[in-house]
Amino acid sequence: MKIAVVTDSNSGITQAQGKELGITVLPMPFMIDGNEFFEDISLTQQEFYGKMEEDMDISTSQPSPESIVELWEALLEEYDGIVHIPMSSGLSGSCQTALMLAEEFDGRVQVVNNHRISVTQRQSALDALEMAGKGMDAVQIKEVLERTGSESTIYITVDTLKYLKKGGRITPAAAALGTLLRLKPVLTIQGEKLDAFAKARTMKQAKSMMISAIQHDLETRWDDKEGKKTHLEIAHTNCEEAALQLKEELLELFPDTDIHIDPLSLSVACHIGPGALAIAAVKKLEI
């Protein structure tokens, strides 16, 4: 049985990487000053942050139903089934749209609602590809991905409160006070949504909080103090040098773990702005 793996660009997988891996990547659309752009098609990471610096009006959108159906129909001419992995249903309506559309495909399209985003969503796509290679069908792959969906964790610290204020996630008064006190909030994504986790005074302190939180999760949730049974990942918004430095800090604690670095999903970056750092962990599948 031949199974296609589909995800969206929120996974951080580029079009070029998708072709190399054998994963189809659906580009996410953005509205910028009234014009539509598609991530990694007509909108690069550099262009996105350039428009953000110009204070343009940027909002996220979701792929049109027509584009999804056309993609699935084209793939089903070659494949027996499809595993479609959208971003978390708690962060976008694109998952619910895909679930609704899949009802018309007689089970040949299995939409995975495992509450992942960015580097953790990327890992889901890689896991799906591995399972497909082992001969598992789309229904079996979906079951595993949804059953293990909560076995991931993300912590993010932001460099500026401007975009959290702009998106209505904090009040103008809280943003003004936080800016005055130079606070660096630490946020977390545990499946459904972006939540507050802690407050730090400096980026150094915020990184320390994130590292401690990841260590705690590995030890208490997955009994993996050394990180040998876990994928560790770093994501960033337009600050690769800081991400590389953070990787070195993590490697001192987890020397036997491969640590992947990716730009953070633009759908998340839209709400937190440039200069943000994230640490994520995903428990390795035992297939």
Notes on the structure:
- Helix 5 (118-133) packs antiparallel against helix 6.
- The protein has two domains: 1-27 and 62-146, 3-Layer(aba) Sandwich (Rossmann fold), CATH 3.40.50.10170; 150-281, Hypothetical Protein Tm841, Chain: A,domain 3, CATH 3.30.1180.
- It is α/β, with parallel strands linked by helices.
- It is 41% helix and 23% strand.
Measured distance between first and last alpha carbons: 18 Å
Topology, number of strands: 13
Q: What general form does the structure show?
A: globular
Helix content: 40-55%
**Which architecture of the largest domain would the CATH scheme give at its second level?**
2-Layer Sandwich
Class of the largest domain in CATH? Answer: Alpha Beta
Radius of gyration: 19 Å
How much beta, percentage-wise?
15-25%
Low-confidence stretches: 168-181
CATH fold title of the largest domain? Hypothetical Protein Tm841, Chain: A,domain 3
Strand order in the sheet with the most strands: 10-9-8-13-11-12
H and E order: EHEEEHEHEHEHHEHHEEHEHEHE
Secondary structure category: alpha/beta
User: Number of helical segments?
Assistant: 11
**Average predicted local confidence, pLDDT:** 89
What's the domain count? 2
Q: Sheet with the most strands?
A: 6 strands, mixed
Summarize, please:
With 287 residues, the chain is of the alpha/beta class. The chain is 41% helix and 23% strand. It has eleven helices and 13 strands.
